[in-house]
UniProtKB/TrEMBL annotation:
Protein species of origin: Coemansia spiralis
Classification via PANTHER family: PREFOLDIN SUBUNIT 2
Stated name of the protein: Cochaperone prefoldin complex subunit
GO cellular component: prefoldin complex
Assigned protein family: Belongs to the prefoldin subunit beta family.
C-alpha cells in the first residue's frame, strides 16, 4: 500500500520528468535551428560566389555522396531553391521553439517550478 506522501513524491518525480522532457525538446529544436543556420550560411556563401560567374562555367556538386559535373546555370537555381527551403524550415522551427518555450513557461508557472542555473 502506498501512503499519501508516496503519491506526492510521485507527483514531484512526474513534474521533474516532464520539465526535463520540455527542456530536452527545446534543446533539440535549438540544435536543429543552429545546424540549419550553418547550412544556410554555406548556401549564401556559395550563391554569392557563383552568381557573378558565367552560366556555362563548369562546377561540381556533391549529390548523395557522388561528385557530379554541372554548369553554374544548372546548379545555381537548385542552390537558391534549397536556400529558400532551409530558410523556411528555420522559420517554422523558430515558431515551434517559441510555442514550446511558452508552453514550458506556462507549465513552470502552473506548477511553481524554478529552474536552477547550471553556472
Amino acid at each position: 500500500m502506498s501512503s499519501g506522501s508516496d503519491s506526492k513524491k510521485l507527483g514531484e518525480q512526474e513534474l521533474r520528468i516532464a520539465a526535463n522532457q520540455f527542456s530536452n525538446e527545446l534543446k533539440a529544436v535549438a540544435s536543429k535551428i543552429g545546424e540549419l543556420e550553418l547550412q544556410l550560411d554555406e548556401h549564401n556563401l556559395v550563391i554569392k560566389t557563383m552568381s557573378p560567374m558565367a552560366e556555362d562555367r563548369k562546377c561540381f556538386r556533391l549529390i548523395n555522396g557522388v561528385l557530379v559535373e554541372r554548369t553554374v546555370k544548372e546548379v545555381l537555381p537548385a542552390l537558391k531553391t534549397n536556400q529558400e527551403g532551409i530558410a523556411s524550415t528555420i522559420e517554422q522551427l523558430t515558431l515551434q521553439y517559441k510555442a514550446k518555450d511558452k508552453e514550458f513557461s506556462d507549465f513552470r508557472t502552473k506548477h511553481h517550478i524554478r529552474i536552477a542555473s547550471s553556472t
